[in-house]
Design a protein that fits this description.
- The protein has 2 domains: 93 residues, no CATH class; 111 residues, no CATH class.
- It is 41% helix and 16% strand.
- It is built from 8 helices and 9 strands.
- The strands form 2 sheets. A 6-stranded parallel sheet has the order 1-5-6-7-8-9. Strands 2-3-4 form a 3-stranded antiparallel sheet.
- Helix 7 crosses helix 8.
- The longest helix is centred in the last third of the chain and has 17 residues.
Amino acid sequence: MVQAIERAGFVPGVQVAIALDVAASEFGSRGRYTLGLESRQLDSDGMIELLLRWIDRYPIASIEDPLAEDDRDGFARFTRAAGDRLQIVGDDFLVSHAPLVREAATVGAANTVLLKPNQRGTLTETLEAWHAAQAAGYAGIVSARSGETEDTTIVHLAIGWGTGQLKVGSFARGERMAKWNEALRIEERLGGRARFAGAAVFGRNPA
């Protein structure tokens, strides 16, 4: 990925950074993580050490679900070790649920919440999760889900709620391009009032 950034003519970590979605719940449970391709298993501390080595070596700005959803203590330890260096996002860990955001905040686990309206079920509950995140000093990302349509509602939510971040995927497929194009249309309508959050958004509330 670093080579691709450089070959595209950009400076890694300055103009383009890396964001990872580890989705650790897919291969980890009860504090054990199975790395199938490497035929080895790590405990929570081993997984944290692996991630910290990556952070030291590569221009990583954001890591989503670095530990499994049932590894709250591991999430908290990783946040203490790296939370001042990058964005640590809770997706499966927080499921856009205000009580879980508040619970995570009490132990210092994660510093950013992924906000998926159709994960929580209603816009009201999703907004409550964002309000809980803001109260805790967490950043927020409004996100699409797999199997999306070309509906562009989440673009309006990201801008209207002032999260500063939108996750819809790369510039491919109609359901993704519809959202990118809607963001460009909104920016055009806002004119001078439009604001690009940029790198300052990572790891804090951009409001």
